[in-house]
Amino acid sequence: MQQEVMTVSCPQCGKEVIWDELSPFRPFCSKRCQLIDLGEWAAEEKRIPSSDDMNDSENWSEDDR
């Protein structure tokens, strides 16, 4: 039984990446693309959309835990 090869597109550059243990940076094609993406998250260029656009420190208190 032959296993189907699954590929995904690198979220940074769009290059096809084989999804298996031999692709250590998956879903990215390379360490470079992985680090570019990480830098964009760290610089807050990317974010997960939310229904509430509240600043992290707005309306926060110890009781909200």
Counted beta strands: 2
The largest sheet has its strands arranged as 1-2
Q: What sort of overall outline do the alpha carbons produce when their principal axes are compared? A: elongated
| Helix-residue proportion | 10-25%
Unreliable stretches covering 5 or more consecutive residues? none
Along the chain, the helix and strand elements come as EEH
- Number of helices, where a helix is a run of at least 4 consecutive DSSP H or I residues: 1
The pLDDT mean sits at: 84
Beta-strand level of the residues, as a percent range?
5-15%
**Whole-number radius of gyration?**
18 Å
Largest sheet: 2 strands, antiparallel
Give a brief description.
The chain is of the alpha+beta class and 65 residues long. Helices cover 18% and strands 9% of the residues. The protein has a two-stranded antiparallel ribbon.
Walkthrough of the structure:
It is a single chain. A hairpin with a 6-residue loop joins strand 1 (7-9) and strand 2 (16-18). This protein is 18% helix and 9% strand. It has one helix at 31-42; strands at 7-9, 16-18. It is an alpha+beta fold and 65 residues long. The model has no long low-confidence stretch (mean pLDDT 84).
